[in-house]
Amino acid sequence: MNHWTSLARRALPVAGSLLAASSVPLWYGQHKPHNLWCEDSKPKKKLTVAELLALKGKRQIVLTTAFDEWTARAAEEAGVDMILAWGSCHEHSKFVIEAVRKGAPNTLIGSGINPGAYESQEKAIQLANEVRACGTDIIYCSGLVPDKFAGLRRQHFPCCGHVGYLPVNDTWLGGPRGVGKTAVEAKKIYDDVMALEAAGCIAVEMECVPDRVAAEITKRTKMLVFSMGSGPNCDGQFIFSEDLMGTHNGHYPRHSITYGHLMQEAIKALSQYRADVLSGAYPTAKHSIKIKAQEFADFMIAIS
């Protein structure tokens, strides 16, 4: 995924913050419900790509990110349809994907190969095979590179493109902004989507495109269209997990929504821990291991 440069700085600190917050969920160390939203206790069935495609026009598809095992596990337990995972470079991406797959064995994973990291279809296929071996189901790539997608599609890789606002091209756009607010820009987005469809992509992320433009394009493509800030009438919604859970300190975009405040909870828990250590409130007798009096006496003799 080529949010690589600008978004990596935003996304990668999440792993540490979530690990810090890993004591927050009440079910850790206790009984763990399979799915917080369903009474059915059967293990989640992983969607196939064919089943994912069959959802077009039937219901919204739910996507989020994960960069570590903890977040991936939470996403799977919540019933998220697809997780996007990547790292700051190709090798780091493989490490991240393996962790996410461990946390979410029954959820589709999409991960990208940086378009700047390959110079040929052969190289693209090599990199795609490497991330697939780590657990990726769908190959995700930012930037309009339909020729590369065509090669991947011939090798039966399900591929997802990216149109609209691309953070990697931020400087060319004059900074973050909506894309497609003029007829010329909107037509360019439409043309890009059709090019990706012709190349064999199964899906496209549409980022920060006017909702009416996104809705019309969604109706005219066979691909799944995943909205990131492009309105409710695409085939699915994609929001970063750190926006949803409140775990980063950066700017929260207008299209994001926050349901939790895990960073605040983590700071609260760690601050209380520090205070208890400094005051002597922790550890207490119940946290300590005991030794029988005679064994302790013998120990003291042994070290005298």
Report on the structure:
With 304 residues, the protein is of the alpha/beta class. It folds into 2 domains: 4-260, Phosphoenolpyruvate-binding domains (TIM Barrel, Alpha-Beta Barrel), CATH 3.20.20; 269-303, no CATH class. The protein has helices spanning 4-11, 13-20, 49-53, 69-78, 90-103, 121-134, 146-154, 170-173, 183-199, 211-220, 241-245, 262-279, 293-303; strands at residues 61-65, 82-84, 108-112, 138-140, 159-164, 203-207, 224-228, 236-238. An 8-stranded parallel beta barrel has the order 1-2-3-4-5-6-7-8, surrounded by 5 helices.
- Overall SS class: alpha/beta
Regions with pLDDT < 50 over 5+ consecutive residues?
A: 1-39
CATH homologous superfamily label of the largest domain: Phosphoenolpyruvate-binding domains
CATH class of the largest domain: Alpha Beta
Question: What order do the SSEs take from the amino end to the carboxyl end, as H and E?
Answer: HHHEHEHEHEHEHHEHEEHHH
Rg (CA only): 23 Å
Number of helices: 13
> Looking at the structure, what is the overall shape?
elongated
Task: Kindly summarize this structure in a few lines.
With 304 residues, the chain is α/β, with parallel strands linked by helices. The chain is 44% helix and 12% strand. The chain folds into 2 domains: 257 residues, Alpha-Beta Barrel (TIM Barrel), CATH 3.20.20.60; 35 residues, no CATH class.
Topology (elements, then pairings):
Blueprint lengths: L3 H8 L1 H8 L28 H5 L7 E5 L3 H10 L3 E3 L5 H14 L4 E5 L8 H14 L3 E3 L5 H9 L4 E6 L5 H4 L9 H17 L3 E5 L3 H10 L3 E5 L7 E3 L2 H5 L16 H18 L13 H11 L1
Parallel strand pairs: 1-2, 1-8, 2-3, 3-4, 4-5, 5-6, 6-7, 7-8
Helix pairs in contact: 4-5, 5-6, 6-7, 7-9
